């Protein structure tokens, strides 16, 4: 299902994609749990949903540990995503000591025949493949291959964690090649492609600028997967991927993905 929210933002529930109506390339992909939370609130627009109901239906029933702190954090992240996409007034209101409500004064239109005219990496959990809804120039093929691999790994980790599959299948850090770039505070930052010596400092600066502007924090026990397209490094519009992942015993537990397209350096 696809929704048009406040005539400014489109939201696709199948893969958690959010993007501005006038900027099809600036797509943000929500995590599985964050997507489930937004769908739950959106389907009950105008109704106050109690905290316990959200914790039970979004976390507990899917085998995940829940807490009010985590719920507050996810609500805050969703609000930020809406603001970045162009909606500057509050879509989700906090009802103190009760819960949350997706505001009824926000216009929400369901679109049955969703357009597939933007680039969106949609994870097909059943077969573990990536479906690409647009044809990309050949020069981006290698870059997308690297990013696609990480999206699959991160999403597989989330699916395994979220559904408590009774399987010994684990997603290990060494399942995909990564290259150490530098330490952001106490968090190691890895790239998905080998780093040219001439671009090392520039890559670090781009990473630091983005995490500072978007308030992506280094949390205890997390690491970052990061890649910026060559076109961006050469001063043109490009694509950037930053994923903050939590791992334990060399296995991914969850990842928060951030993906920018059409991004351009400020000269």
From TrEMBL:
<dbReference type="GO" id="GO:0000160">
    <property type="term" value="P:phosphorelay signal transduction system"/>
</dbReference>
<feature type="domain" description="OmpR/PhoB-type">
    <location>
        <begin position="1"/>
        <end position="104"/>
    </location>
</feature>
<protein>
    <submittedName>
        <fullName>Transcriptional regulator</fullName>
    </submittedName>
</protein>
<feature type="DNA-binding region" description="OmpR/PhoB-type">
    <location>
        <begin position="1"/>
        <end position="104"/>
    </location>
</feature>
<dbReference type="InterPro" id="IPR016032">
    <property type="entry name" value="Sig_transdc_resp-reg_C-effctor"/>
</dbReference>
<dbReference type="GO" id="GO:0003677">
    <property type="term" value="F:DNA binding"/>
</dbReference>
<keyword id="KW-0472">Membrane</keyword>
<dbReference type="InterPro" id="IPR001867">
    <property type="entry name" value="OmpR/PhoB-type_DNA-bd"/>
</dbReference>
<dbReference type="GO" id="GO:0006355">
    <property type="term" value="P:regulation of DNA-templated transcription"/>
</dbReference>
<keyword id="KW-1133">Transmembrane helix</keyword>
<dbReference type="InterPro" id="IPR036388">
    <property type="entry name" value="WH-like_DNA-bd_sf"/>
</dbReference>
<keyword id="KW-0812">Transmembrane</keyword>
<feature type="transmembrane region" description="Helical">
    <location>
        <begin position="142"/>
        <end position="160"/>
    </location>
</feature>
<dbReference type="Pfam" id="PF00486">
    <property type="entry name" value="Trans_reg_C"/>
</dbReference>
<keyword id="KW-0238">DNA-binding</keyword>
């Amino acid at each position: 299902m696809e929704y048009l929210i406040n005539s400014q933002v489109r939201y696709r529930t199948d893969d958690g994609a959010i993007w501005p109506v006038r900027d099809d390339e600036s797509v943000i992909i929500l995590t599985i749990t964050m997507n489930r939370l937004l769908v739950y609130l959106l389907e009950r627009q105008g109704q106050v949903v109690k905290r316990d109901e959200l914790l039970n239906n979004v976390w507990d029933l899917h085998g995940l540990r829940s807490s009010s702190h985590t719920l507050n954090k996810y609500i805050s992240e969703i609000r930020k995503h809406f603001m970045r996409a162009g909606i500057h007034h509050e879509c989700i209101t906090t009802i103190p000591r009760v819960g949350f409500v997706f505001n009824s004064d926000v216009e929400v239109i369901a679109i049955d025949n969703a357009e597939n005219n933007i680039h969106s990496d949609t994870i097909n959990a059943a077969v573990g493949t990536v479906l690409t809804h647009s044809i990309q120039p050949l020069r981006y093929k290698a870059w997308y291959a690297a990013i696609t691999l990480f999206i699959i790994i991160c999403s597989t980790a989330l699916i395994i964690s979220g559904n408590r599959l009774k399987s010994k299948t684990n997603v290990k850090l060494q399942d995909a090649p990564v290259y150490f770039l530098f330490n952001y505070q106490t968090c190691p930052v890895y790239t998905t492609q080998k780093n040219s010596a001439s671009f090392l400092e520039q890559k670090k600066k781009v990473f630091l600028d983005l995490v500072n502007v978007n308030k992506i924090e280094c949390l205890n026990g997390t690491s970052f997967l990061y890649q910026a397209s060559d076109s961006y490094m050469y001063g043109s519009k490009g694509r950037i991927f930053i994923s903050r992942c939590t791992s334990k015993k060399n296995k991914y537990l969850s990842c928060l993905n951030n993906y920018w397209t059409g991004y351009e350096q400020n000269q």
